[in-house]
Amino acid sequence: AQKVTQAQTEISVVEKEDVTLDCVYETRDTTYYLFWYKQPPSGELVFLIRRNSFDEQNEISGRYSWNFQKSTSSFNFTITASQVVDSAVYFCALSASGNTPLVFGKGTRLSVIA
Amino acid sequence: EAQVTQNPRYLITVTGKKLTVTCSQNMNHEYMSWYRQDPGLGLRQIYYSMNVEVTDKGDVPEGYKVSRKEKRNFPLILESPSPNQTSLYFCASSDRGRTWTPLHFGNGTRLTVT
Question: How high is the mean pLDDT of chain B?
Answer without folding.
Answer: 93
